[in-house]
Fold each of these.
Amino acid sequence: MSEIPQEPQPPQQPGPPPQQPPPGPAYGSPPPGQSPYQGQPQPPHPGQPQPGPAYGGPYQPQPPLSPSDERMWAIFAQVGPFVLGFIAPLVIWLVFRERSRFVDQEAKEALNFQITAVIAYVAITILAFITVGIGAILYLAFVAAIVFMILAAVANGKGEPYRYPVNIRFIK
């Protein structure tokens, strides 16, 4: 096989430098002494506050919840722990406590019950471990907790408040 030698390429020369426009008024520029933005809003300047709604603007209170929305969020606070544990009533309480007294009361009640239930579950687990499984019969408290949560959701669906029979009120 024979290789074909390649001829060296001459270095490329840069083209002429770009032409700068001559100083003075250009096409479409305003006459001297007149603002280029006359009659138009000024462009924003960096570092200057801009008009309009700002992210950290004044606080606008939210409107109160309608009665049907109150019942719905109260029910979610009661049955949300089936999926999310104590997180559901906590989030509902934090978001809606200012907008509805009923949701505030019921979400706090549900949150307190969930905290009480977690403490009871831990105590039952320790007792079942110490008694080598005999204390496991106390896990029927899970069934009672489910029944109480359903009763609370039904009462809240009717717009009635519900008080759990066994509840330590940590949040008042």
Amino acid sequence: MSQIIQILNFEEGYKEKPYLDTLGYPTVAGGIKIGPQGASLANYTFSVPKQVGDVWKLALVNSKISEMKTYPVIVAAMAQCNPARMDILESMAYQLGVVGLSKFNKTLIFISNADFISASSEMLNSAWAKQTPSRARRHADVMRTGSYDIYKGLI
């Protein structure tokens, strides 16, 4: 069973009140951008309870999945994924955008060939892994093992 919302809430951090993300975008509910870069948080005077944020996030994930299905290289990789590995592709699409995920060409080819060890290594050999090393290590572990074990006690 998918754990994508729990993974995203852990990786993004959940905050009910709007905050600025690391790039300066107004954001809420664990990575949901709500305004343009540099906008003042004074423009956002609401909060999003976790239950509502989780539904909103699931709608965004479902939109990402639909978009992912328009990229043959991602579709081929998705076909080889169990639920845990699929959650990792979805998390990457959520964080990087589907276009960003599609640029992991070697990783996606390794996944489509069910070579999860090489896919994991390739994930760690990326600019993304340098930018978010802990998240990348956890994601690579799930891709390699096909299990959520690394998240036990975290989500």
Amino acid sequence: MIDFVRLRYLDKNRIEPFISNKNNFDKLHTVLEYHSGEISYPFTANISSMEIRISDKEVFVKNSLHKLYNELQKAKSQNYNDFTYSALSNTIQHLDSKLIDLRKTRLTQLEFGLNIELPVSAESIIRENVILHKLKFHNHNEQFGGRGEYKQFNHSNYYFKIYDKAKQYQLDKHVIRFEIKYKSSKGFNSLGVFNIHDLKSKKLLQNLFGDLLKRFDELTIVDNITTDSKITAKDKSKLETYLSYNYWDKLSERHNRNRKITEKKAFLSLLVKNDLLKTKTFLRANLTRKFDELLNS
């Protein structure tokens, strides 16, 4: 569920002496000017892979809670396994035991996502079936040197990411990840999340999942058309038009906006008529099942 977090301390004057104390952190990295011996910001310390960074004006703590949990379990630093509600709560409590005033911090960035297993490769689904988000083309499409397919859609307050988690970590099963990364607190404050301890609330986690599901529903995910398909040539031609980003881009112009609403309905009707939403229906059902499983574990 929760992966990357970035939180900011509101009272730098209280937390900096705590982190600088050797009894609390045995390693504190600083910038040293060689000739004068003058020490400068930033100061950095770590709780496993979680980085604490002190500048002259503020203090941030950031990185993956999921990876931190696995590190605490003496496992590999990874985020492809299940990260249950109880594991999340225990990880937040661990941070609380290592720091002070954690309840007085404010979350500034947050990632929420789910890994689900597939009967076929995630790479093929991402490449062939995941086409548009909010009828816009992806901003990034990476293969990571053959280590998996990755599509990212950029929006003003968030990134929506879909990628091949199994190939990223060379797993012997098929795993796809859907993830929303909030670029600022504006995206999740409206869902009731302000502080890292809020992430222990099942109600607020349900709010975050609801937002992820909303973004998932905005994806255009279309089944492959097989060679023995009974779809008419006319419908195939319409589909080619509707699956073009340029078509929707032109309809976004002010004088075409009423037509765009009509065409969106026609596109959905065409997909339903030709039974081309099986992949999307399957993925949505498994996202819901996985969230419920993690929340109750």
